[in-house]
Amino acid sequence: MSNLDDFGGGQRPDDSVLVVTTNDVPGHRVERVIGEVFGLTVRSRHLGTQIGAGFKSMLGGELKGLTKTLVESRNQAMERLVEQTRSRGGNAVLMMRFDVTEAADLGTEICAYGTAAVIAPIG
């Protein structure tokens, strides 16, 4: 059995910045839009993982080493996104998205981006 965090990610329930992929948050109003924020990481390929993935791709199945690396990278990008939002006085990121691209054949660039805002409960 694997650790749940090895193959998934996302926000912790106790985080002071809410990150959503929607335009708004039900039950909350946007008091102030701060603007675009992003968290970025570039990861190089691990030779052992690449060799293992090459063999696995011939046989079929999930490339678990690469999956774990991508999860770690996305989580790091998210952490940086949240820190950027906090440092600008926000408590929410609206319309969060990920962008993943190859970085000059040396690795993978992962960017988490969205709109930093201050939100408050309605009522």
TrEMBL record:
Entry-linked Pfam families:
YbjQ_1
**Superkingdom as given in the UniProt entry:** Bacteria
| Family stated for the protein in its record | Belongs to the UPF0145 family.
Organism of origin: Kitasatospora paracochleata
**SUPFAM superfamilies the UniProt entry points to:** YbjQ-like
Q: What is this protein called?
A: UPF0145 protein FHR36_001555
Q: Mind telling me which InterPro entries this protein's record contains?
A: UPF0145_dom_sf (IPR035439), UPF0145_YbjQ-like (IPR002765)
